[in-house]
Amino acid sequence: MEEPDLQKIHDFLFDLALKAGDMITSADPSTVDTKKNCEESSTSGTLTSDPTFVVDPIDGTTNFVHGHPYISISLAFAHKLVPLIGVVYNPFTQHLYHAIKGKGAWLTAPSIPTSHPPKPSTEEENTKGVVSAYTRTKLPLRQPTPPLEGLDKCLVAIEWGNERSGNNWETKTKTFASLAGDDSTGGRMVHSLRSLGSAALNCCAVARGDLDAYWEGGCWAWDVAAGWVVVVEAGGRVVGGNEGEWEAKVDGRRYLVVRGAEGGQEELVREFWGAVRGKLEY
Fold it and tell me: How far apart are CA 49 and CA 203, in angstroms?
């Protein structure tokens, strides 16, 4: 079987994300009742070794319904159970993250204007808009990447999910308390926790270096496959959400994502696992 042309697939997904973004920004969120997630050959969430497109048309549906603009189109291509291409696009910020295995991760986004927007003092100034060209920036944004120095200095993303009882819920809530609590409670007192509502964008924030880590349980391959490529190509690491799961599966439904760093990745993973209270089971 001929090997897939990764660049050609990447370019197709890049264009597709932009077209989907136009549809989303013109849609009425009040008409959204549910979401159909799919990948090329199955809707079970379990991938095969066949070449597969892994698609989430709106990652962050709850945000979208509430009009909160932290949502993304998540498009990935996997082969032999390995994510090879990732494209993640937030159409509201026009930030598009993209990566091909072995070729690095990039952010294509509007440039930051070099001058302030015109003041609303004269009609002439009001008609001069500020033109922002698009730039492509290699990830992570900070170079060289600062080392990871322990959970107490980390900004960590978590998500609540829609499973609000049972073992996984208890594991999550006890782990959240463990991460946030101070020494007197046996906690790790992370710098802070964030629950933002989009697995794909959380992964991209780790790739950027804005977040130090992201711990998740219960999401699906289509939520993380594209972001996975972006993170790994930005020097980050994806392992399992439970202690000892050094080799994570893209459809494993539990993940710990750590940003690229000059040092301290493995130490942070071990420290994080030590803060997990219980075991995620999906």
Answer: 23
Measured CA to CA, the distance from residue 32 to residue 29 in angstroms comes to: 6
Q: Is 109 left (phi over 0), alpha (psi -120 to 50) or beta?
A: beta
Bridge partners for 38 per DSSP: 55
Cα 11–chain centre separation: 20
DSSP letter for 186, please: T
Contact 257, 83 (CB under 8 A): no
Average pLDDT estimate for 172-188? 95
Residues 6+ apart with CB under 8 A from 42: 48
Judge contact between 230 and 97, C-beta under 8 A: yes
E strands in 141-232: 155-157, 192-194, 213-217
Which residues fall within 8 angstroms of residue 254, CB to CB, at 6 or more apart? Answer: 216, 217, 218, 240, 241, 242, 245, 248, 280, 282
Instruction: Quote the pLDDT of residue 133.
Output: 79
Rounded to an integer, what distance in angstroms lies between the CA atom of residue 16 and that of residue 121?
A: 41
Cα 269 from Cα 214, distance rounded (Å):
11
Q: What is the mean pLDDT of residues 5-13?
A: 97
CA 53, CA 61: separation in Å to the nearest integer?
Answer: 20
Phi, psi of 14, rounded to the nearest 5 degrees: -60, -50
pLDDT per position as a tens digit, 128-175: 444 567 899 999 999 999 999 999 999 999 999 999 999 999 999 999
Decide if 129 contacts 122 (C-beta within 8 A): no
